[in-house]
Amino acid sequence: MRTTIASRPGTSGRIHTMKILCKVNQAAWFRRGIDAPLARFEIEVDPAKLTQEERNLVADHLRNGNEFDWPSFVPPAATYEAFMDVVKRGLEAHKESSGEEMWHAA
């Protein structure tokens, strides 16, 4: 998992972000009419801005350090927002299938 220390405009100090490599199912994107020239894309995520449930889901799907293996959902685009949409839908699906309130028991 690569961690980048970046300074954001308008903030003092440094913000820790992680670069997550997201694999893309190019065939699924092609079927939906989405351009996917590469088999993966990279996004920066600030773990502190995610809920504990979201962090648990992402961590459970990380392979080889920083490669996010998508749940069964196909993101609509190669963006942070699409990544978070997949995470939120994954949490909802897990809650529905298990009846649990959390991805992991605390």
Topology pattern, helix = H, strand = E: EEHEHEEH
Largest sheet: 5 strands, mixed
Unreliable stretches covering 5 or more consecutive residues: 1-11, 101-106
pLDDT average, as an integer?
A: 79
Number of domains: 1
Quick one: overall form? globular
Structural summary, described in words:
The radius of gyration is 15 Å and the shape is globular. It has helices at residues 26-31, 52-60, 80-98; strands at 2-6, 15-23, 40-45, 62-63, 67-68. Helices cover 32% and strands 23% of the residues. The chain is an alpha+beta fold. It has one domain. The two termini are 24 Å apart.
Topology:
Blueprint: E1 2-6, E2 15-23, H1 26-31, E3 40-45, H2 52-60, E4 62-63, E5 67-68, H3 80-98
Parallel strand pairs: 2-5
Antiparallel strand pairs: 1-2, 2-3, 4-5
Helix pairs in contact: 2-3
Keywords:
5 strands; 3 helices; 32% helix; 106 residues; alpha+beta; five-stranded mixed β-sheet; disordered N terminus
Q: Summarize this, please?
A:
The protein has 106 residues and is α+β, with helices and mostly antiparallel strands. The protein is built from three helices and five strands.
